[in-house]
Write a structure and sequence with these properties.
Blueprint (H helix, E strand, L loop, with lengths): L5 H39 L6 H19 L10 H18 L33
Helix pairs in contact: 1-2, 1-3
Length: 130
């Protein structure tokens, strides 16, 4: 049996990130539609006829959440940077599951400062030396 490649991990991680993104779109639709239904009901003065719709749709949304994220947990931002971070996290999780090391940040990346040892930095200027 061959070991999964980085392309394979990337494909699977990308797929999971898309699932998360679909959930957030589903949640946004749920909120917008139910706010509109609630406002229409409030201003018409009729009894709240949308309760079964909200209840069953909310249950479907809860199942969708559990399918995508598990119990409990959520991510906060839907930016392209967030998406790339999520893809990297998924790839690292898959590598760890298969007993491989997670990838390290590139030397020229913005994260390279995190690897810098502050204790070893020069706290003086060469011109100060005698």
């Amino acid at each position: 049996m061959t070991e999964p490649t980085d392309d394979h991990y990337y494909y699977l991680a990308r797929k999971r990130v898309r699932q998360k993104k679909r959930f957030y779109s589903h949640l946004k639709s749920f909120i917008i539609v139910n706010v509109v239904f609630s406002l229409v009901t409030f201003f018409n003065g009729e009894p709240f006829a949308w309760t079964p719709i909200i209840l069953f749709w909310g249950m479907g949304l809860a199942f969708h959440y559990v399918k995508v994220f598990g119990l409990p947990g959520t991510d906060r931002v839907l930016t392209p940077e967030w998406e790339e971070r999520e893809v990297q996290k998924e790839m690292d999780r898959m590598r760890a599951r298969d007993g491989r090391r997670p990838s390290l940040p590139e030397a020229n990346s913005k994260h390279s400062d995190e690897l810098d040892l502050k204790e070893l930095r020069k706290s003086y200027d060469d011109s100060e030396l005698v």
